[in-house]
Write a structure and sequence with these properties.
The chain has a single domain, classed as 2-Layer Sandwich (BirA Bifunctional Protein, domain 2). It has 9 helices and 11 strands. The strands form 2 sheets. An 8-stranded mixed beta sheet has the order 1-5-6-11-10-9-8-7, with helices on both faces. A 3-stranded antiparallel beta sheet has the order 2-4-3, with no helix packed on it.
Length: 335
């Protein structure tokens, strides 16, 4: 557990006002985001059968919460880590066409998460996925999509300012594109987290690209599951967050793997045993559409736009008592 207390923190809005602002941000953003990216809202599962291979593997070390049910006693059911794989299957199942897509409210439990101001065991995000052509699996497609998402977030800043001018946290006017290798080349002696802080403090907002493959040093910038994002065509949207003097990740996204990318990445991750799973077989047999997709943190976005010091101010979760007490002593009201 790690907690940062900002100096002279003022929450601006009380708990009831904050709750009203959360509702406004979530409802307004998803409508505008869906419209800009041509996405339709779908219902999505909170849990999937382990045998399908649909659950997000994250960094490969986190264990999903799982259980069995009375009518399927021999099937292990897992609460999702995210819906990265499920969405791609859903696009095929529901007959989405080229440049059509979906978004959904994703709720997950990540019990192995290290708790701090940004991280909770409860994850709530907009998961989204969109069909693209094979010839659109390019950096240009990725960057254009990132700019659209940034535009919607910036527009939300103005919407929130209109309703809550005393509380809005002002954002930079542009997003910059940087690769993980460029950061290692520039700051070889810094940790990946320190590099993210340094570049976002310098530029305000960055899309940090190409996460997954080892860098020239032989080390990875960060872990990525090998079977949904193409590690050469992915990245994170990061904002410099002045209240906590740190980079804040708002979105992880990317163009999804094709057969060649998945085979190479599974080999790199020593996870080729997954090739027998139904999801992976669909990619091998080229039965799924080419897609781009990602997740946008709902509580993170509320935290960013309202200048909150702790994600627990904008979501209800479970926290250690000492963290709750220390936050309360500094006017940080955990829900």
């Amino acid at each position: 557990m790690h907690l940062t207390i900002p100096q002279d923190y003022d929450p601006k809005l009380d708990v009831k006002q904050t709750q009203a602002a959360i509702r406004y941000i979530r409802e307004t953003f998803q409508d505008e985001f869906g419209k800009e990216l041509h996405l339709q809202r779908l219902s999505a599962p909170m849990f999937v059968e382990k045998s399908t291979g649909l659950n997000d593997n994250l960094n490969g070390v986190e264990t999903p919460v799982s259980f069995t049910m009375a009518d399927l006693p021999d099937e292990r059911i897992e609460i999702v880590h995210s819906l990265a794989k499920w969405k791609r299957v859903a696009l095929k199942r529901y007959g989405f066409g080229l440049h059509e897509g979906l978004y959904t409210n994703m709720n997950a439990i990540r019990k192995d998460e290290d708790l701090d101001n940004f991280h909770s065991i409860y994850v709530d995000q907009w998961d989204w996925e969109k069909v693209i052509g094979q010839d659109e699996r390019t950096p240009e497609t990725l960057e254009a999509t990132v700019r659209t998402i940034f535009k919607v977030i910036k527009h939300m800043e103005h919407e929130v300012w209109y309703k809550y001018p005393e509380a809005v946290h002002h954002l930079p006017d542009d997003i910059h594109f940087v690769t993980t290798q460029a950061l290692e080349d520039r700051w070889p002696d810094k940790t990946p987290e320190e590099r993210e802080d340094a570049i976002t403090k310098e530029l305000g907002c960055v899309f940090l690209m190409q996460i997954g493959w080892p860098l020239k040093s032989g080390k990875r910038h960060d872990g990525r599951a090998p079977d949904y994002d193409d590690w050469t065509l992915n990245g994170d949207i990061l904002f410099w967050y002045e209240p906590l003097q740190r980079a804040m990740e708002i979105s992880s996204m990317g163009i999804r793997v094709d057969k060649a990318a998945m085979l190479a990445q599974l080999k790199q991750a020593h996870a080729e045993d997954r090739l027998a799973l139904p999801y992976h077989q669909m990619i091998i047999n080229e039965q799924l559409p080419y897609t781009i997709g990602g997740g946008i943190g709902q509580s993170r976005l509320c935290m960013l736009l309202l200048g909150k010091a702790h994600v627990g101010e904008v979501q209800a979760s479970v926290w250690p008592e000492d963290m709750i007490a220390e936050c309360a002593a500094h006017d940080i009201h955990i829900l």
